[in-house]
Structures are given as C-alpha cells and as structure tokens.
Amino acid sequence: MPMSSTADRLNGKTYRMHIVYGGSCAPENNNGDPLKLQEYAPVHDSKPCDALVETDLDHECSYPVNYTECDPHGEIFQQEWNVTPYQIFIQNTSQHAAWCYIYIDGVKDLGNHSLQAGESKTILGFTCEDGSVQEFLFTRPRLLNPLEYKKIKEEDFQDATEEERLEVGSIKAKFVRVERFETYTKMISDTSSGSSIREVLSSTIDGKNKLIAKQVSAGATSRGGRTLVAKPERSRSSLESEPTSKKSTIWHLDHSPSGSTEIRIRYAMRDKLEDMGVVPKIIESRGDQPKRKGELSSFDKAKRKKELLAELETLASDDSGDDDDDDDDEVIEC
Fold first, then answer.
1. Which of 85, 115, 238, 287 gives 20 to 30 Å between its CA and that of 92?
2. What does the alpha-carbon distance between residue 134 and residue 22 come to, in Å, rounded to a whole number?
3. What does the pLDDT look like over 151-207, one tens digit per residue?
4. Backbone torsions φ then ψ of 252, nearest 5 degrees
C-alpha cells in the first residue's frame, strides 16, 4: 500500500503533523530525529482523516505497565498491558505565525503550542491542568471503572456520543493563523496559578473504556503515562513576596475558515487496518500453529475472556461534548 504524506494530502498547505515514536528506546531516522510512524492513505471504509497509522503495542520502544482495573463486582485487581509511547511533530512552513491546538481522542491538550513562521517542534506529552506533562501512550481500551458499572446497573450509562464516534482513535492538530501580537505589562501575585491558557478541561487522558471502544469500533486508545514534567512547585518565599509585574503577549487569532487548518491522523491496531484493506495480512509461523500478527495467544485470549465476561453479559442484556472554545485569543506570559 502507498504511504501517505499529510502535507501532500493537504494539497501543499503550509502546516504539517506527524506521529513519531517516543520513549527512551525510540528509533531514529538518518538525521538522528525520532522516527515517524508509517502513514497510509485513507480508504473508503475509514472515518474522515488525512492519514492512518498502525498502533503496534509490541514495538521496540513498547514497555509493560501494570494498571489497576475493576471487575463488575467492584473487586480491584492488577493487570499488565504493553503500551507504546509516542510524540507529535508539528511544523509551520508559512510566512506567518500560528497557534496549534492538539486533540487526543477529542480531548484538548492544554499546552502552549505557538509556532513562529518556519518553526517546528515536537510535543512530548499531554499538558495537564496542574501544569504537569504526561507521556502520550497507545494502549488497549481499559475496563469500566466502578462508577461506570454503577451507571450501567442504574441504566444511566450514556452511549458513545457523535463526537466520540468521530474523535476516538484520532489525533488532531488545528492550526490557526496569528493576525497580530499585543504586548502589555500587568501586576500579578506569585500565588496565582500562572496558567497561560484561559480554559479548564480534562486534567489528563485516561483512555476510553471497552464499552465505548466497542461502540466506535476502536481496538486501541490513548492515555497519559509517565510524568515527563512535574507539577510546578512554588517556594514559601515566593508565596510571601510582593506582587510583581509580568509581561504578557496576546496572540490575536484568525478563526475564519481561511485562517485555520485541521490535520487529523487516525490510529488503529494492525488487524483493523488489515480488515479495512489498508495493509496486507501477514501470517507468522509460530510452532505448528500459524498466527496472524497482532493476534492474541490462547493464554491471553482466555485471560481476557475471564476479565470481560461480566461486561459482555451486560452488553447482551442492554436494550438499548464539550464544545471547543478556540475562539479566544491566546496569552503567553513571559
């Protein structure tokens, strides 16, 4: 199958986004930069996107993680899954500055992703509400938590929304052209939060549960991993200091259709891409039993069957977004 360049698919537009491998064992290209995931052209069976990539949970940079899960009866247990860290490369090759919003499965990252003309950067992880940064991870959908099981029991569980059906399994970058800058000085107190983005969204990304994933036909999801940047600490002396002046720059953004561009890359497990005809099926011989790449072993299948039994019974008996607030100008405080 031919590779797809997101830049080519956008007919020469002046922004780019690629998904690259992350983690300490991430492979590099000939220039010493993180290797990007191979991109495939969308097919008629895929949801709207500019490219498709494979989520390989057995990659050389993957590693196992123990997660705390909960069964339908509220019993807590530990479960180990492989995860694959990734990062997001963005580039502005235009003659003007731009602001970039990042969405992971529809959840907006709170990081400051400003790009001067000709600038590129690699986003290492998801910026949380408290200022910490968590590693981007590809992983399996999680089991339902106790609150979600309770909602199912009370018939109060909501099916996947139209937004989730579109966004889950995708990484989106929205680039907005900067019309002008305005710099001013204001008095602040060191006890303030210092947040430069005027909105509060999810404090992290915890991945989609198996019920939602089943409804949107997603075999993989994203979640936050290891903390790459700790929550900023404030010393006692700074808390007791007098208010000081701080210089801030307002980026006035052009949110008109001509001033913004979206790039969306969808990710999926290999068996999903095979079923869609995006990649050819690969048969690997393991002992006397041939096995398709990405298929679970009989031991893993039995383990998963036991874990999901109660959830499947719930599904069998069941008869049955937040609006984006991108229209504000963005403030960078120095």
1. 85
2. 12
3. 666 665 567 778 888 888 999 999 999 987 777 666 554 443 333 333 333 445 666
4. -85, 120
What local confidence, expressed as pLDDT, does residue 19 receive?
Answer: 96
Question: To 10 degrees, the CA torsion angle through 42, 48, 50, 53?
Answer: -60
Under a CB-based contact definition with an 8 Å cutoff, are residues 126 and 118 in contact?
no
Residue 189, both tokens: 């107190």
Integer-rounded Cα Rg, in Å, for the chain is 22
Q: At 134, which amino acid appears? A: Q
Token pair of 202 as six digits:
């999810």
Cα distances (Å, whole numbers) of residue 193 to 56, 130, 242, 308: 38, 9, 15, 42
Virtual torsion, Cα 271, 1, 15, 125, nearest 10 deg: 30
- Beta strand 221-229 with 260-268: parallel, antiparallel or unpaired? unpaired
| φ/ψ of residue 167, rounded to 5 | -90, -35
